[in-house]
Amino acid sequence: MINRGAAAGAALVAVVAALAAAGPAVSAQDAPPPRVSPGIAWGACPPDLSRAMRCGTLDVPVDHAAPGGPTTTLGVSLAQATGTKRGTILVNPGGPGGQGMWLAGAVHRALPADLRAAYDVVGVDPRGNGHSSPIQCVDTATFDKAPKPDPVPRTAADKQALVARAKAYADGCATRAGALLPHLSTVDNAHDLDRVRAALGEPKISYIGWSYGTYLGAVYGHLFPQRVDRMILDSIVDPRPEGIWYGVNLGQDVAFQARWRDFTGWAARHDDTLRLGPAGRDVDASLSRVLAGVRGAPAGGLVGPAEVYDLASGAMYDNDRWPGLARAMRDYLAGNPAPLVALYEPPDPDKANATAIYTAVECADGPWPRDWAVWDRDADALHRTAPILTWPNTWLNAPCAFWPLAPREPVRVDGRGLPGVLLIQATRDAATPMVGGTAMRQALPTSRLVTVVGEGDHGVLVFNPNKCADKYAHAYLRDGTLPSGDRACEGGDEPEPDARTKGRG
């Protein structure tokens, strides 16, 4: 899920952007001529997307229950098969709030040559997102101006101010998102995917989804099982309806703390370089000193406690970020705040749009407590043992307590009618904890689960390639072969403390 809402997607985007940049340059003249699709006119892509792809738009009903009513426009991208095509793969990077058009080229590039020859890969910016008529809920230049309020309340007045901020966000969505707001849900997104399938002229579609994209894929498969060719779900959301989405987010709080302990243990083992302390509790104490320092005087006038919590939790998505975070903490405590300030990325319209979609979809998909006392009780209790994420995650989701629309009943995914599905799950993933892979395996009787043991980075295929997991995925895409039972792969290595962060300087 992104950023707990929007950072996971951002982390995945950054990794794949680096991968794409490392690949061979392709000009528009080098791209294959576009195939004809019955419902999409393919042409050049927007300037922020790869010129090697083709892009187009598709109008879909705002309300799929009223197909003759108003429409909204989806942006769609195509990375074409280089040989005789056997099928089309739709891809989604997660979120909710992750843009998908950029992902088609990156996934196609990551496939082995025979699969690049056999598959078109299609990306979609979900409704209201990116190139698909994007919405906003607030003026991000003022609402997200750094330093943001400290997410950990110390007084009743602090809580009241943060509750008012959450309510203002919900009110902003109601005011700014307009007629689309009642129709921003996973079910709506799944119906959109089927419209894309039909517009491509495909009787069946394959699908690869990461993070929230696994839930979207599971819901699509539940609604349209007869239209699924092959499906891979990587870094898996727990699909059980009782957890959508309040319970899932509480589970994330616990999982992020466990991943933070992985980080503190790593930093402690490299105390000779990082100087944050020789034990995990010492690294915790170092973070506390950083937080106390920026609480008194934001680093660079920008980085306060909210930004430090965001940097710390963001690093838990990908251990490639650990060295940069640890060195920035070390240097700050030594009197040099510049590296900490350099890690901060200011808000922009894309991030604000991602958060707006995240909020709208999660608030719509299932019931949230409407009594603030429930949130307060749960967050206070959980913060005692899981402080790295609990309060920041609470405030990210708190607009759902004041959402202007009634939520839908969550879909109960059961896998009936689905062909075999391949599931891939890292055991230490914080954004989508291991319980999600186990629960999805139980929900989809035809599935097989490949567990990447000891791995904690979010997103395996493409984002953090694992040869063992790739082997199962590629075999499945080639001929539909699933392993005879669940399988385990060994995770990757931890970074060196002086490693530079790939794609980030």
TrEMBL record:
Residues 391-489 form the Peptidase S33 tripeptidyl aminopeptidase-like C-terminal domain. Gene3D superfamilies: alpha/beta hydrolase. It comes from the Bacteria. One of its GO terms (molecular function) is hydrolase activity. Residues 88-267 form the AB hydrolase-1 domain. Pfam families: Abhydrolase_1, Abhydrolase_4. Keywords: Hydrolase, Signal. Residues 1-27 form the signal peptide. Residues 483-505 are annotated as: Disordered. Belongs to the peptidase S33 family. This is Alpha/beta hydrolase. It comes from Yinghuangia soli. The lineage of its organism: Bacteria, Bacillati, Actinomycetota, Actinomycetes, Kitasatosporales.
